[in-house]
Structure formats: structure tokens, C-alpha cells
Amino acid sequence: MHLLRIRSIVLTIVVHLYAIALPAFPQSSPYPWLTSYRQSHAIASRIKPPRGYYAVRTRAGTFEDWLTHLPLKEGRPPVFLHDGRRKSNQDAHFAVVDIDIGNGDLQQCADAVIRLRGEFLYSVGDYPAIHFNFTSGHRADFTRWAAGYRPIVTDNRVRWTKRAKEDFSYRSFREYLNQVFAYAGSSSLSKELRKLSDVHHMRIGDVFIQGGFPGHAAIVVGMTVNQRTGRRLFLLAQSFMPAQNVYVLKNPANARLSPWYELDFGENLITLEWVFGKDDLKRFP
């Protein structure tokens, strides 16, 4: 066991040194799962701020900007499950994000957040930053996967063995994500994220998350500010269980503002499918 532990440490060091030496390879499209992208379908283009509000500015090349320009499907189509059936509750969504569900019942709530974060990092070519933890606590680096190593999970223990050729392709990245989805969830992701001391520090890309079995997660994909009062509103997107489309949530507490939510929502943030506390807001490191 001692020798296996030493081998694991040495492998981790080698893979990390390899990752540091990698150049960045930004993708030709920021949303590589699409065959084409139209700016007019972006969240920022389709979901306008209420009268008297203006969108929070985002800097090009950041996660915040990438999220606000996520493409939406035309109109308000139904939300579908991974197996092609319509979701029973069609009242929770305002719009559907134009991103695939993936294979099988894998891309659920926290997995959808992982997908979006991973897709952004892959799109800008920041491969070493793509890493998430399994529920067991073991770290899964994309660079290790791309170098050909695969996790072998036995009794909540993970070891990595060389089983494939080096492959940094988008297909390889998606296979890596499916592996993460299978062994991660709201519990592991909640432990990875940094808790915010005050919900008023919110920014686009932050995540409301309750780690559990089941838990839930929803990500902030837009923010707007009142020109006169400074009052702020935000948009939320999520997937759910079983795996289904990612969609922008309606606001059940205020039909006039919907899909925007007030930042001053009180102790609890009420959505049509979950209730978060104000202390559930976290941020990627």
C-alpha cells in the first residue's frame, strides 16, 4: 500500500508538471458543441433587463461573459429528459439553453454546472484548470485523462492507470466529463466551491448549491442593475433530476420581474423546484 501511495504521488507530480508545460489552445468557437452560433440567440440578447435597469458589464474572455452569451433555443420549447421524454413539469423554465444533455442519466443539476465550467475552460484552452473532485474526494484532472490515464475505482479508492493514447480533443474532453458526472455530484462540488460571506457579493458564475443525496445546484447566468437605485437582479439556470435540458428558471415569487430574481430575496431563494438559503451561494476558486 505504501508503494502504491508513492506511485500515486509521483504520477500526480509528473502530470502536473506536464500540464504546466502545455500551451493554451483556445477553440475556434467558444461553444464547441454547436455547429453554428448566433449572437442574437445569446442570453444577453434574448433576455433584456427590465425597464430602468442595465446589464452588468462583463469582460471578454471571462467565465461571466461566456455565460451571458450562452445560446438559447428559439422560442420556449419543452424541456426534455435524457431519454427523449418530456419533463412532467413544464412550468419552471423561461427559456432552454442550446446545449445537449449528453449520454444517459448523467448530466443532472450539479453536473450541468460542472459541464458549463468545464466547457468554458476548454474553450479558452486552459486545460490545467479543468479539474473536479469525485464524491470520494479524489481529484480528477483533465490533463491526466488527456495524457491517457483512466481512473480505476475500488471501494471508494481511486487509482489512475495508463490505458490510452494522449488525446486533448473535444471528444476526449466530453468522455472525461461523463466520467466526472458518474462519480461527482452536489456533495463533492459543494465542497470544492468557496462560500461567500454575503449574498450581495454575488457575481455571474456563482452557484447556489446544497450538497446532499439528493442536493441541488443552480448557476447565476446574468445580472442587471437599476440605474437610479442600484438595486440588482439576477438570472438562474439549472438542470435537474433525472438528467434533462439546461434552462433559465422562471421567478415564481414575482411574475412581473420573471425570469429575473431580486438580489434582496430575504432568507430563502424560492424557485419552482427548490428552495435555497442565502448562505448557499458559492464561487469557483
In short:
The chain has seven helices and 15 strands. Helix 4 runs antiparallel to helix 6 (170-183). Helix content is 25%, strand content 22%.
Question: What layout of secondary structure does this protein have?
Answer:
Blueprint: H1 2-20, H2 43-46, E1 53-55, H3 63-68, E2 93-96, H4 109-123, E3 131-133, E4 139-141, H5 142-146, E5 149-154, E6 157-162, H6 170-183, H7 186-192, E7 194-195, E8 207-210, E9 216-226, E10 232-238, E11 247-249, E12 261-262, E13 268-270, E14 275-277, E15 281-283
Antiparallel strand pairs: 1-9, 2-11, 3-4, 5-6, 7-15, 8-9, 8-15, 9-10, 10-11, 10-12, 13-14
Helix pairs in contact: 4-6
Tell me what you see in this structure.
With about 280 residues, the protein is an alpha+beta fold. About 25% of the residues lie in helices and about 20% in strands. The chain contains seven helices and 15 strands. The chain has helices spanning about 1-20, 45, 65-70, 110-125, 140-145, 170-185, 185-190, and strands at about 55, 95, 130-135, 140, 150-155, 155-160, 195, 205-210, 215-225, 230-240, 245-250, 260, 270, 275, 280-285. The strands form four sheets. Strands 1, 2, 7, 8, 9, 10, 11, 12 and 15 form a nine-stranded antiparallel beta sheet that branches. A hairpin with a 4-residue loop joins β13 and β14. α4 packs antiparallel against α6 (about 170-185). The longest helix has 19 residues, at about 1-20. It is globular, with a radius of gyration of 19 Å. It starts with a helix and ends with a strand.
